[in-house]
Specification:
This protein is of the alpha/beta class. It has helices at 33-45, 62-70, 99-113, 133-145, 159-169, 186-195, 219-228, 232-243, 256-263, 272-279, and strands at residues 3-6, 9-12, 16-17, 50-52, 78-83, 85-87, 93-95, 120-124, 152-155, 173-175, 198-199. Helix 1 (33-45) runs parallel beside helix 9 (256-263). The chain starts with a strand and ends with a helix.
Length: 282
């Protein structure tokens, strides 16, 4: 697989996202713990060296599974987490962005994963948050300087917030929504590309919310899939890899078969004709 820099680290462009390992709604234990551990171990066997997680996935579930499956970790495995949120008893996502909350969350991730340093930590932003971004970034930089994290990232951020994070914190990655069908964040992708910052799209196959367009149902995607022998999901992910070389993928799944399909995207080559057809009239 091709690689791209994540700060001072280098990772394969196809990683794994652990968000789907906990139970429904990213709450509670997995339906099948053995299957979840098997997925993590198979991911590493397939060459995945970048796992994206968060203490609030579960909460406290995905990190525990990662440690149970993979500790002691391979030397080249980069663990990336996210802070800035907590869960309530109903599974809601609440902001937790005061500097002391960010620090506590990083410490929780270090403890639960059993590591002394995280490869990167994304600061997850929320609409209407009252904590100044400058103060949040300053705390993330302090944690980096203390050696608790190797790189700072930012998630769910506007172009202006990303620009501020590049200038103030020297971020290594951005996690925002982006796909073939939702390119509203294209200017942020380009900003990251110019700055040498990894761009890690969530909802890479379209929003998970009901009633929103899905890449795997798009007529052009279905046509290219039929012609190339790839699955529609592989076509959608391959388009992202072809879009810019700073795009890293972290597709998540709780199925070994689905994992293997995702990793095999590295072998899907879209022709200029395929790309033209996929992008026509968008």
């Amino acid at each position: 697989m091709d690689t791209f820099a994540l700060g001072n680290l280098s990772v394969h462009r196809i990683g794994f996202g652990a968000m789907q390992l906990p139970g429904p709604g990213v709450m509670g234990p997995p339906r099948d713990r053995d299957a979840a551990i098997a997925v993590l171990r198979r991911a590493v066997e397939l060459g995945v060296d970048h796992i994206d997680t968060a203490q609030f996935y579960g909460p406290d579930v995905s990190n525990e599974l990662i440690r149970a499956a993979l500790h002691p970790y391979p030397d080249d495995l980069v663990l990336v987490s996210k802070v800035g949120a907590v869960r309530d008893a109903d599974g809601g996502w609440l902001p937790a962005q005061r500097p002391e909350e960010l620090r506590s969350a990083v410490e929780d991730n270090l403890r639960s994963l059993g590591v002394e340093q995280l490869g990167a930590v994304n600061l997850r932003l929320h609409d209407g948050e009252s904590v100044a971004l400058e103060d949040q970034l300053a705390e993330m930089v302090a944690l980096r300087e203390e050696g608790k994290i190797a790189g700072v990232g930012i998630s769910t951020a506007t172009r202006e917030q990303v620009q501020q994070a590049v200038e103030q914190a020297g971020i290594v990655c951005v996690q925002n929504a982006f796909s073939l069908l939702d390119r509203s964040d294209a200017d942020v992708v380009e900003l990251c590309h110019g700055a040498g910052v990894a761009y890690v799209p969530y909802f890479p196959l379209g929003s998970a919310f009901p009633g929103t367009p899905k890449v795997v149902e798009d007529p052009a995607v279905l046509a290219v899939a039929a012609r190339t022998g790839a699955t529609p999901a592989q076509v959608g992910l391959a388009w992202l890899l072809a879009h810019r070389d700073n795009v890293l993928l972290i597709p998540g799944t709780s199925s070994v078969a689905h994992l293997e399909e995702n990793v095999a995207v590295a072998d899907v080559q879209l022709s200029p004709q395929d790309l033209e057809e996929l992008e026509r009239d968008r």
